[in-house]
């Protein structure tokens, strides 16, 4: 089946996904272009996740 399908998976408290384009049964990742605002939001989300992970690990130490 050729076409595009959204591959998603849960990770922690979020869902992450990416579009895959199938051609002759072979998948290819086809990420959509981000505008400037979307790129900034994506970068901010990654920074927040990294900070959260760091704080969580530090508070769980014995």
Short structural summary:
The protein has one helix at 36-59, and strands spanning 3-11, 14-23, 26-29.
Task: Give a topology summary.
Layout: E1 3-11, E2 14-23, E3 26-29, H1 36-59
Antiparallel strand pairs: 1-2, 2-3
How would you characterize the overall build of this protein?
By secondary structure, the chain is an alpha+beta fold. Helix content is 39%, strand content 37%. It is built from one helix and three strands, in the order βββα. It has a three-stranded antiparallel beta sheet with strand order 1-2-3, with no helix packed on it. The chain is elongated and about 55 Å long. 0% of the residues are buried. The model has no long low-confidence stretch (mean pLDDT 87).
What's the total count of β strands?
A: 3
What is the molecular shape? elongated
What fraction of the residues are assigned to beta strands by DSSP? 35-45%
Main beta sheet: strand number and arrangement?
A: 3 strands, antiparallel
The radius of gyration is 16 Å
List SSEs in N-to-C order: EEEH
Supply the helix-strand structural class: alpha+beta
Span between termini: 52 Å
Percent of residues in helices: 25-40%
Strand order of the largest sheet: 1-2-3
How many distinct helices?
1
Query: Which residues form runs of ≥5 with pLDDT under 50?
Result: none
The whole-number mean of residue pLDDT values reads: 87
């Amino acid at each position: 089946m050729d076409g595009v399908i959204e591959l998603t998976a849960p990770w922690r408290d979020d869902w992450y996904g990416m579009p895959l384009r199938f051609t002759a049964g072979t998948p290819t990742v086809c990420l959509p272009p981000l505008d400037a605002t979307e790129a900034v939001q994506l970068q901010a989300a990654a920074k927040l996740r990294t900070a959260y992970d760091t704080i969580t690990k530090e508070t769980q130490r014995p």
